[in-house]
Design brief:
By secondary structure, this protein is α+β, with helices and mostly antiparallel strands. Helix content is 33%, strand content 18%. The strands form two sheets. Strands 1-2-3-5-4 form a five-stranded mixed barrel. Strand 1 and strand 2 form a beta hairpin. The longest helix is centred in the first third of the chain and has 16 residues. The radius of gyration is 18 Å and the shape is globular. The termini are far apart.
Length: 245
């Protein structure tokens, strides 16, 4: 069941999409991405997030939320102009969590770093970078739990992302390189990808109809083909998937 939102708190100043921070009727705080982020971004967040869960990645709880039209209308000409109403994407707030830094990387388990690097190559997500020149890791570090959390997949399924680019700029590029050099690791990930793909029809079927369109009249398709998404996710079946070029 979608979580109904009944209170707008503020808009986040972090992240390219500047999500809205709101409270649901369940009393929990959510970072909400709506029409301003683009409905194609919501679709990407939903698919990638669901696949991440099936691979066992530590993803903050996310869900479909519903924003009452009266709440949106009350601020549509001001603070809520980019929020929208109806079904939107919400990610639950994590207390005492900050953006991942070089200092925290050493605390992340080696297996988890490999999992994240392999996952991002699989979904062609080039938006988890960190080098000496800076970057955008899209990972949180929970000081309380002493663990990292995986967030933000609105730029996934990017056909311009290559294995070469991931090996150059991904925050866990050395872990990805390790996978590329070991056939047993590749076989393990290929098997895990296949298992996750078994649920893809259900994942796609749970996407709200509204998210497939740019406009409220639902006449203009978003610039994201679900067939293309599926083809991207099946690339691991090709032997060259893990091959450096």
């Amino acid at each position: 069941m979608p979580v109904e939102i009944d209170e707008f708190i503020r808009r986040s100043e972090q992240g390219a999409t500047e999500p809205y921070i709101c409270r649901g009727v369940d009393g929990k705080v959510y970072f909400i991405k709506g029409k301003g982020a683009g409905y194609d971004s919501l679709v990407k967040e939903w698919i990638a997030g669901q696949l991440a869960l099936r691979l066992g990645l530590p993803v903050p709880r996310f869900c479909i939320v519903t924003v009452p039209r009266e709440l949106y209308e009350a601020g549509r000409n001001g603070a809520l102009r980019d929020l929208g109403s109806g079904f939107l994407f919400g990610s639950e707030n994590v207390e005492n969590a900050n953006e991942m830094s070089f200092v925290n990387i050493q605390h992340a388990p080696a297996a988890l770093k490999r999992d994240i690097a392999a996952f991002d190559w699989w979904i062609q997500n080039g938006d988890r970078t960190l080098t000496d020149a800076g970057g955008n890791p899209n990972l949180l570090w929970s000081e309380t739990a002493r663990r990292l959390l995986v967030i933000d997949h609105n730029l996934a399924f990017d056909e311009e992302v290559t294995l070469h680019s991931q090996l150059e700029s991904h925050i866990f590029r050395s872990s990805l390189s390790e996978v590329c050099d070991h056939a047993d690791l590749q076989e393990n990930y290929n098997a895990r990808f296949e298992k996750a793909l078994m649920d893809l029809p259900q994942i796609l079927g749970d996407i709200p109809e509204r998210w497939h369109y740019v406009d409220d009249a639902c006449t203009i398709d978003i610039n994201l083909s679900l067939d293309r998404v599926e083809n991207i996710l099946k690339r691991h079946r090709v032997p060259a998937f893990w091959k450096r070029t």
